């Protein structure tokens, strides 16, 4: 199988975004995780009428992957309709630092999927709390 690149991962995140459940903010976000074995696991944000229960696309993807037995991740793509794309929130950065520390983070605006910004998880949360 051909290696999955950032373009394919962003496309998977864009497709996942269509399945977002965001009736309150209407801000749909899709995420796609790439495992070390080349599998793509996706997620989208799910909102609650009790706003604080909302879960970001990144965490939905990560929790799905982890509970599906996936352990190593090389990248995550995040797509939302926002100029420059949406950056992962602090809570998602913490979880990515714990479970996908070596991952690249690809971010794109759903209206401009070819413009992809690339970050490292370590760069997004330097000095993350990782053990006690
Ligand atoms: N959201 C995500 O899913 N990921 C992000 O990176 C930023 C924010 C969601 C949470 C909420 O459903 C909506 O976007 C507005 O904050």
The topology string of helices and strands comes to HEEHEHEEH
How is the quaternary structure best described?
A: single chain
- Specify Rg, calculated over alpha carbons: 14 Å
CATH topology: Cytidine Deaminase, domain 2
Counted up, domains total 1
Question: Reading side by side through the largest sheet, how are the strands ordered?
Answer: 2-1-3-4-5
CATH architecture: 3-Layer(aba) Sandwich
Number-wise, the strands total: 5
Structural class, from helix and strand content?
alpha+beta
Portion in beta strands: 15-25%
Q: What is the CATH class?
A: Alpha Beta
What ligand molecules are bound, each kind once?
Answer: tetrahydrodeoxyuridine
Largest sheet: 5 strands, mixed
Shape, please? globular
Give your account of this protein's structure:
- With about 130 residues, the chain is an alpha+beta fold.
- The chain has four helices and five strands.
- Strands 2-1-3-4-5 form a five-stranded mixed beta sheet.
- Strand 3, helix 3 and strand 4 form a beta-alpha-beta unit.
- The longest helix has 12 residues.
- The termini are far apart.
- The mean pLDDT is about 95.
- The structure holds tetrahydrodeoxyuridine.
- The site of tetrahydrodeoxyuridine has 14 residues, from helix 2.
Outline the fold blueprint.
Layout: H1 6-17, E1 29-35, E2 40-44, H2 57-67, E3 73-80, H3 90-99, E4 104-109, E5 117-120, H4 121-124
Parallel strand pairs: 3-4
Antiparallel strand pairs: 1-2, 1-3, 4-5
The chain binds tetrahydrodeoxyuridine (THU).
């Amino acid at each position: 199988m051909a290696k999955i690149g950032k373009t394919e991962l962003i496309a998977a995140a864009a497709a996942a975004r269509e399945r977002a459940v965001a009736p309150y903010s209407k801000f749909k976000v899709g995420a796609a995780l790439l495992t070390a074995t080349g599998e793509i696991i996706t997620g989208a944000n799910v909102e609650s009428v009790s706003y604080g229960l909302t879960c970001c696309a990144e965490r939905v993807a990560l929790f799905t992957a982890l509970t599906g037995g996936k352990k190593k991740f090389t990248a995550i793509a995040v797509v939302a309709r926002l100029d420059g794309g949406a950056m992962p929130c602090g809570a998602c950065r913490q979880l990515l630092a714990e479970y996908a520390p070596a991952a690249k983070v690809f971010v794109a605006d759903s209206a401009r999927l070819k413009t992809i910004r690339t970050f490292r998880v370590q760069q997004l949360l330097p000095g993350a709390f990782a053990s006690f």
